[in-house]
Write a structure and sequence with these properties.
Structural class: alpha/beta
Shape: globular
CATH topology of the largest domain: Dihydrodipicolinate Reductase, domain 2
Low-confidence stretches: none
Number of domains: 2
Helix content: 25-40%
Strand order of the largest sheet: 5-2-1-6-7-8
CATH class of the largest domain: Alpha Beta
Number of strands: 14
Order of helices and strands: EHEEEEEHEHEHEHHEEHEHEEH
CATH superfamily of the largest domain: Dihydrodipicolinate Reductase, domain 2
CATH architecture of the largest domain: 2-Layer Sandwich
Radius of gyration: 20 Å
Number of helices: 9
Length: 336
């Protein structure tokens, strides 16, 4: 691959830091690197490949005269809407990790294992999907290609880090306060998360689903390029630090056995099957944290329907659900 100039917008956040680690780990072909963040972080020093970089304050002119090829945005939807246009104006391709552009019909929403072919349709912006959607469609796509999927029912168990670094810190603080018999601090979440579950992520919509749940519905259809797939999601925040888990039930168009599905997944890109119930081996957040792949286990026939399959899916949502997926998009851009 030819070397390219790369910018990371939101370089000091959890995903921005993971992007840097992932770029280095995968030896992404960088010529010049630019790190940008808010005024609060401007001037901070970050080391990348034994070289020290200074964080720049993100402004309208941040992309001028730098010949940036790829701008990895992880600074939230409002900043993406405000500043992505300036990157595109300067001929950079923006890969945005926020929800700002995901529903725009003219902006590709990409999971490289599923729809890398759609990258070429970009007009300067490519959207990175919601973390929960990413791991689910990686699992669904090989089955859909083989036998078709009519319906998906998914319950997510989403880690505290999905709400950001301060959410992780609050969960840890709450656990300490609970164990010390102190009053629990509640600021980031609607309720205490420590030793608890919160069956709400994002705000509720008019149909009773939350925005997070509806993202999984609309994004799945767009990424898999099939509006006929029906998706019903229930998203739950759990007191786990990192890696999201999902219990998924699917109804397929044609019959498929658990063994057939297992064999398909074992031969699919980006998936590791860990399914040895007799030895109590199955994916868990603790085991999957820091790993790139989507892990699948507890594979079995769904006995409640004719063409049903049930399985358990775990993935590190900061890696595959955010930073890694964005960088895989960038890698694919250089080869498409």
């Amino acid at each position: 691959m030819k070397k390219v100039n790369v910018a990371i917008v939101g370089a000091t956040g959890a995903v921005g830091e993971q992007m840097l680690e992932t770029l280095e780990k995968r030896n992404f072909p960088i010529d010049n690197l630019y790190l940008m963040a808010s005024s609060r972080s401007a001037g901070k020093k970050i080391k990348f490949k034994d070289k020290e970089y200074t964080i720049e304050c993100l402004t309208e002119s941040s992309f001028d005269n730098k010949n940036i090829d790829i701008a990895l945005f992880s600074a939230g939807a409002e900043r993406a809407k405000e500043f992505a246009q300036y990157a595109v104006k300067n001929n950079a391709v923006v890969i945005d990790n926020s929800s700002a552009f995901r529903n725009d019909k003219d902006i590709p929403l990409i999971v490289p294992e599923v729809n890398a072919h759609a990258i070429k349709n970009h007009n300067g912006i490519i959207a990175n999907p919601n973390c929960s959607t990413i791991q689910m469609v990686v699992a669904l796509n090989p089955i859909h290609k083989k036998v078709g999927i009519k319906r998906v029912v998914v319950s997510t168990y989403q880690a505290a880090s999905g709400a950001g670094l301060t959410a992780m810190e609050e969960c840890e603080q709450q656990m300490r306060e609970m164990l010390d018999g102190k009053k629990v601090t509640i600021e980031k979440f609607a309720h205490q998360l420590a030793f608890n579950l919160i069956p709400q992520i994002d705000v509720f919509t008019d149909n009773g689903y939350t925005k997070e749940e509806m993202k999984m519905t609309t994004e799945t259809k767009k990424i898999m390029e099939d509006d006929s797939i029906e998706v019903s999601a229930t998203c739950v925040r759990v007191p786990v630090m990192r890696a999201h888990s999902e219990a998924i039930n699917i109804e397929t168009c044609n019959p498929i056995t658990a063994k057939e599905a297992t064999d398909i997944w074992k031969n699919s890109q980006g998936i590791i099957v860990l399914d040895n119930p007799e030895n109590k081996e199955y994916p868990m957040p603790f085991f999957c944290t820091g790993k790139d792949e989507v892990f699948i286990g507890r594979i079995r026939k769904d006995i409640s329907t004719t063409n049903g399959l049930a399985f358990w899916c775990v993935s590190d949502q900061i890696l595959k659900g955010a930073a890694l997926n964005a960088i895989q998009i960038a890698e694919a851009m250089l080869t498409v």
